[in-house]
Amino acid sequence: MARQGMAMALLVVGLAAGCWESANAAAMLSQLKPTLAVTASPTPNQVLHGGEDVITVTWSLNATAGTDAEYKKVKVSLCYAPVSQKGREWRKTHDDLKKDKTCQFKVTEQAYAATGTVEYRVALDIPTATYFVRAYALDASGTQVAYGQTLPGATFDVISITGVTTSIKVAAGVFSTFSIASLAFFFFIEKRKKNN
């Protein structure tokens, strides 16, 4: 009786571990089908400015893709192009999508439709780099099951806002000049007092 109870407990633990592992299994980019056709409005090598320019992203199901019954959501992101990943481990592409650092900037995540369009104003905090757009189809659990992207070739550059405007530069120059002039004036006064 005790052996049967022990065997049953081991079976339950084994099943639970298997379910947990399958639920937490990471999607691999190399195993996803490229069933989404993705386009973005910037022309190749176009320069966009954070906080100013708008990107229009369009996706659709490839005609030869087959069924999209398991697609529940679509997630669109800005992704670092390979040229902007060189020497930067924090931007590197990884086949395991839980470890992948390519697509860090979400454009949208919304209910899936076979075709869709979204407009995205480039955020002020997007770093200066070269980007492309990738869209993932997600299943009911939120796991990536398919994708599409604008690579190869359709990359564009983003120039981030530094926060240093022309007026700030002018003010800094004026105050620097004033401080140097004040220092020279007080130095001259102190020297004159010593001579008297």
Automatic annotation (TrEMBL):
The chain crosses the membrane at residues 170-189. GO terms for cellular component: plasma membrane. It comes from the Eukaryota. Keywords: Cell membrane, Membrane, Nitrate assimilation, Signal, Transmembrane, Transmembrane helix. GO terms for molecular function: nitrate transmembrane transporter activity. The keyword Cell membrane applies. The keyword Translocase does not apply. GO terms for biological process: nitrate assimilation; response to nitrate. Residues 1-25 form the signal peptide. Belongs to the NAR2 family. Involved in nitrate transport. This is High-affinity nitrate transporter. It comes from Lolium perenne (Perennial ryegrass). The lineage of its organism: Eukaryota, Viridiplantae, Streptophyta, Embryophyta, Tracheophyta. The gene is NAR.
